[in-house]
Amino acid sequence: MSSQEQIHNLIQNYRQAVMAKNVDDVMALYADDVVSFDAVKALQFKGKAAYRAHWEECMKMCPGPHIFEFHELTIETSQEIAFAHWLAHCGGTNEKGETQACWMRVSACYRQVGGQWLIAHEHWSAPFDMTSGATLFDLKP
Amino acid sequence: MSSQEQIHNLIQNYRQAVMAKNVDDVMALYADDVVSFDAVKALQFKGKAAYRAHWEECMKMCPGPHIFEFHELTIETSQEIAFAHWLAHCGGTNEKGETQACWMRVSACYRQVGGQWLIAHEHWSAPFDMTSGATLFDLKP
Question: Hey, which of A14, A71, A83, B18 would disulfide with B109, CB 3.0 to 4.6 Å?
Answer without folding.
Answer: A83
